[in-house]
Model the fold of this input.
Amino acid sequence: MNIRYLMPLMALFLTACATEPPAPDPAQDGGLLWVKHSAEYRAMTEQVYAKATSDLPGFIADKSWSVIPGQDDAAHLPVAVILDVDETVVSNIDFQLTFERPFENWKLDEWTRNTVATPIHGVRKFVESARAAGVTVFFVTNRPCERIDGIDDPCPQRQSTIDDIGEVGIETDAEHVFLSDERGWNREKSTRRNHVAETHRVVMLIGDDLGDFLPCVRKKPYAPCTNSATGADRMKMVEDNARLWGNGWYILPNPMHGSWTSAIPR
Ligand SMILES: [Mg+2]
Done:
């Protein structure tokens, strides 16, 4: 075939290859609409925090109780609970509905700087009652420490996260907020949970992602994990830890994003 006739065909082929399927419309996304508009979502978050609040005194009193694997000699340590931040303490539903796809961390950071954080219902009262009982509250988030052009601070996300938590009525500081990619940490949260467990008896974990409770839950492993977790692996992790759900581990619903998306068969 003459090259003159081939060129338009090739151009057409390349255009077809470059055309991605259209991104899903957030305004039509059932998960986003449910979080934004349903009374049921609010009822669930209140339910989770009410159960955590009522369970806490028993865990404080039982000095043999810890939710960290291997922490079996912590009776002498002060008591702590560990909370995730996004969709556990602060709601980012309005960001999820409006951000320009694809997701990038700086977009969330910029949005949180320019908006007043919305609380997850129930969290403030829970933290107040935990602190009133002498419990230290730590926040372990996978918001990453990374440089932002034009800002001197090598980890500006630390302060924006502390500010976010403060905006929902929970005062905290850099000693109690642990981000990803600081102090040698990565997205694998078990390392940070173990860090808290060096100084505290950790009696409760609260989050919206399997990774807020268990190590090595992702398709893409982060050190010290080496294996890629499949959907079946993740289901088995839930089953193997049945005694802890609603009894030391409290999980909030998040149909919007999380490590679960890596388990979707493609
Ligand atoms: Mg979260």
